Amino acid sequence: MFAVAAIALFIGMIMILIRLYAGPTLYDRVLSLNAFGTYTVLFIGILGFLTGRPDFLDVALLYALINFAGTIAVLKYFRYRAIGDTSPTPSGKPMAKGKLNDQGAKS
Questions:
Q1: Domain range list for the chain
Q2: Three-class secondary structure of residue 106 per DSSP
Q3: Nearest CA to 36 among 19, 24, 51?
Q4: Does the pLDDT at position 101 exceed 60?
Q5: Cα–Cα distance, 76 to 72 (Å, whole number)
Q6: Has residue 103 got a pLDDT over 90?
Q7: Side-chain half-sphere exposure of 86, counting CA atoms within 13 A
Q8: From CA 103, how far away is CA 10, in angstroms rounded?
Q9: Backbone angles phi, psi at 47, to 5 degrees
Q10: Rounded to two decimals, what is the model's pTM?
């Protein structure tokens, strides 16, 4: 039964890769990459169950955290064109590094 689930996940991963390649917009590609990471986590969990290695669940959880953080980082990069601290000002533009804010604190 779990072998059938692994095969179904593998077929779903291939379909997601096709969507990743054919996605018309950047956000479609990021969404399919995130879905591929989720399928990978499920595949690692099922593979661990099939091989009798419960250690794989720890690997799957770690990969899920990396997948989530990576998706947030990619979306932040494409929105602000920077990964670092780019706190927007009231005008919507990022504040220059080293500039003082209204309270005199360096931002």
A1: 2-80
A2: strand
A3: 19
A4: no
A5: 6
A6: no
A7: 13
A8: 55
A9: -65, -40
A10: 0.71
